[in-house]
Amino acid sequence: MHWTACFSLLVLAAGAIAAPHARADKHYAIMDNDWYTAGFVPYLIALDGDVDILGLASDTANSWQRQGALHAVATLEAGNLSCIPVYAGATWPLINTPERFQAWETIHGKLPWEGAFAPENKTAEAEGNDPTSGNPNRFVKAAFREGYPKGKPNNSTSAANFMVEMVHKYPGQVSIYSAGALTNIALAVRMDPEFASLAKQLVIMGGYVDLNMLQATGSIMLADYQSDINLMIDPEASKIALTADFPSITIAGNVANQVFPSQQFVDEVKTAKNPYAELFSKSKYCVCRFEFTDNFAALVYLDVDTSYGSPNYGNIHVYQKALAPLGIRQVNYIFEVDADRLTQRIKHSLMHPKTCADLA
Length: 360
Hints:
Layout: H1 6-17, E1 28-33, H2 41-48, E2 52-58, H3 65-78, E3 86-87, H4 98-108, H5 122-126, H6 159-169, E4 174-178, H7 183-191, H8 195-198, E5 201-205, H9 212-217, H10 220-226, H11 229-232, H12 235-242, E6 249-252, H13 263-270, H14 275-282, E7 296-304, E8 316-319, E9 329-336, H15 339-351, H16 356-359
Parallel strand pairs: 1-2, 1-4, 2-3, 4-5, 5-6, 6-9
Antiparallel strand pairs: 7-8, 7-9
Domain Inosine/uridine-preferring nucleoside hydrolase: 30-303
GO biological process, one term: purine nucleoside catabolic process
Signal peptide: 1-18
């Protein structure tokens, strides 16, 4: 997920699984993301909604998986949440590589945001940007504005295996949240034929539709907001995950760009004297204005283009039931959100974050 739009994209998907509930059974979540300095907002919202986070998983999307895993550890340490474990995910997509990705761009045009597969840029890394291309196992310490972590990810198992273990331990109660590539989830689906059906739901950030004209006629920044790097970094994994038999799949695609933090919002968050409020107020964010409406979602059938020769490689296509091809499934596609309610929840989670003492 790209940096400038990261705030709105992450919190929307997180909000879908962190709504207050009055169920007798416990609600658990595993949060899979390409973690970065300000990537803590989703898990703060989930914790604020009394969701029990079993662990964080790292993937390759915005940057390489190993860098993201350390960001996850570091941001948890910053707010006294190290009781939540971090599990390293797959470093490589199922098929894609930087070279393959860049060759596709030569034929079909460059993406405004290329994530981990952007050409290696040592100058940008020296200035504090996360690593892209090159050696996937290297770390860029200058990018850890939250502080370089003292701890490490849990090495007892992989992210995919952890997901499988948890849905068997808590059948029907574990939401799988993804705001990055779907590689780990696809691996879990292929590892265990019961994995998807035993989960509570899959919630993802990604899956933009009908935006080609906007990308062509708008600014580069506007095109950047519409780029679907989470799915395009690993199209084959996206196809596997989004056709698996999860009881429910929720997609936060175009809706993600409806909510951006205003300067007034940021200034109010600044008044809270805690590490997360301070990190958020210092992070790169975009102050934009969009129109907001109440929640609105539709049930659609969805497929992922996995043809490497297609200009839409890694993008989704949606269908109504009568016209859908075989082998795809129905998903909940969110179109609009209640912006006021969402921003209030974000604000509360940032200004009153929970710690391990609260979770004990």
